[in-house]
Automatic annotation (TrEMBL):
Pfam families: DUF7344. Residues 26-100 form the DUF7344 domain. It comes from Haladaptatus litoreus. InterPro entries: DUF7344, WH-like_DNA-bd_sf. It comes from the Archaea. This is DUF7344 domain-containing protein.
Length: 129
């Protein structure tokens, strides 16, 4: 898996932002769907189809997010994956309908571990390994 000590540089362009502030971290993590996407993708080492991702996200069932995989596909494609891509946390390819995680900034990874412990009841290392 990718190192948590590096800031994400893969797949970035000049118009994308890296998470550098606590405010950015909270903007990303405020949506339970985005947290679930990050939990799922942190455990993967290769690209994942959006349909498969939506099924895995639906099974995580955190916060008030209780959508079906079919409903999640739309919100993932139009809201959550673009937001995660804006901060260069994922690479989302609409043409191939695939998504994969980029290296996460250490600051985000630290907060994500805390939320995973609270929401999933898993060891913090397991959620973001």
């Amino acid at each position: 898996m990718q190192s948590s000590n590096d800031l994400n540089h893969r797949g970035t362009s000049d118009n994308r932002n890296r998470i550098i502030s606590v405010e950015d971290v909270f903007e990303v993590l405020t949506a339970p769907e985005r947290r679930a996407v990050l939990y799922v993708l942190c455990r993967r080492q290769k690209p994942m189809a959006v349909e498969e991702l939506s099924e895995d996200v639906a099974s995580v069932q955190i916060g008030n997010a209780r959508d079906t995989p079919e409903r999640l596909i739309t919100s993932l494609r139009h809201v959550h994956l673009p937001k995660l891509e804006q901060f260069s946390l994922v690479q989302y390819d609409c043409d191939s309908n695939s998504v994969e995680i980029n290296r996460l900034p250490l600051r985000l990874k630290r907060y994500l571990r805390f939320t995973a412990e609270d929401e999933l009841g898993v060891c913090s290392e397991d959620a973001t390994a």
